[in-house]
């Protein structure tokens, strides 16, 4: 089997697949070589072993603890990657993964006091780090708050019995859950909150609420996982974007990234890492003002031709795209 793209050089075989919740599955993978990664990181997966369709998934396993490399995937309606992984991939099949990526990790945090908050499928890096902390920093004081829609949506339900966790479900009605949503009052009940390193992963509004609340409550060390970006509604005004082929105009609000503007208007664009690392979202800008926060995968010649990484491109005027 040949490597579909140099970005995904790690061949892994599916050992088994386990259903976690009605719409989430964990794929356990065998890698015959040593695969270096840190708890909390993600990898790109070549979907259908194609070079041009890469998707990012958190590695939900924990180095030095888990026997397999695992990906925990929510099946998203019309999601090409998640439907392939959760419907078609079978035991014995091979997947191709990138190097592990991302900076949402706990191993580099010189602290013994954590609050980890997860919303929905954002629990995957949180569980990876929770196991890591239990094994490598057993003396650490770690609190976890996990928000789900209903009790049956708890991912890693059995494993959470090993760790103290506050479970919050929008509709609960069973013991062990707080019913409702995360509130400032719940955060205030966390002992020594201001002294904790707070790490969160989940939908963007959930993370924004936590950031605002914990900072107001004195937290100074706050980290969130950035690549769970829901697609926004298409804007009807703001900066104007024009594509040449096909000829089209669309809008994005000031402050948006080029990727967000394209995705919200259903302009075809590949995106995986959303952090200027993988190079998937390479797009050519013909004219207009913009700044960039990453050019990591671009050559000098490509930049001179106006190529940008759309996820790391911040438009400052109307743009014309190739
Ligand atoms: S999505 Fe990876 S570089 Fe933009």
- How many β-strand runs? 19
Number of domain modules? 3
The DSSP helix count reads 7
CATH superfamily of the largest domain: Nucleotide-binding domain of ferredoxin-NADP reductase (FNR) module
Description:
The protein has 322 residues and is an alpha/beta fold. The protein folds into three domains: 88 residues, Elongation Factor Tu (Ef-tu), domain 3; 112 residues, Nucleotide-binding domain of ferredoxin-NADP reductase (FNR) module (Rossmann fold), CATH 3.40.50.80; 83 residues, Roll (Ubiquitin-like (UB roll)), CATH 3.10.20.30. The chain has seven helices and 19 strands. The strands form five sheets. Strands 10-9-8-7-11-12 form a six-stranded parallel β-sheet, with helices on both faces. Helix 2 links the parallel strand 7 and strand 8. The protein is globular. The two termini are 35 Å apart. FE2/S2 (inorganic) cluster binds next to loops. The site of FE2/S2 (inorganic) cluster has 12 residues, from loops.
Describe the protein's topology:
Blueprint: E1 10-21, E2 24-31, E3 42-46, E4 54-58, E5 69-74, H1 80-88, E6 94-97, E7 113-119, H2 123-136, E8 141-148, H3 157-160, E9 166-169, E10 177-179, H4 184-188, E11 197-201, H5 204-216, E12 221-224, E13 239-243, E14 248-252, H6 258-264, E15 282-287, E16 290-292, H7 300-304, E17 307-309, E18 313-315, E19 319-321
Parallel strand pairs: 7-8, 7-11, 8-9, 9-10, 11-12, 13-19
Antiparallel strand pairs: 1-2, 1-6, 2-5, 3-4, 13-14, 15-17, 15-19, 16-18
Question: Key terms for this structure?
Answer:
19 strands; binds FE2/S2 (inorganic) cluster; five-stranded mixed β-sheet; globular; 3 domains; single chain; Elongation Factor Tu (Ef-tu), domain 3; Rossmann fold; 322 residues; Ubiquitin-like (UB roll); alpha/beta; six-stranded parallel β-sheet; 31% strand; 18% helix
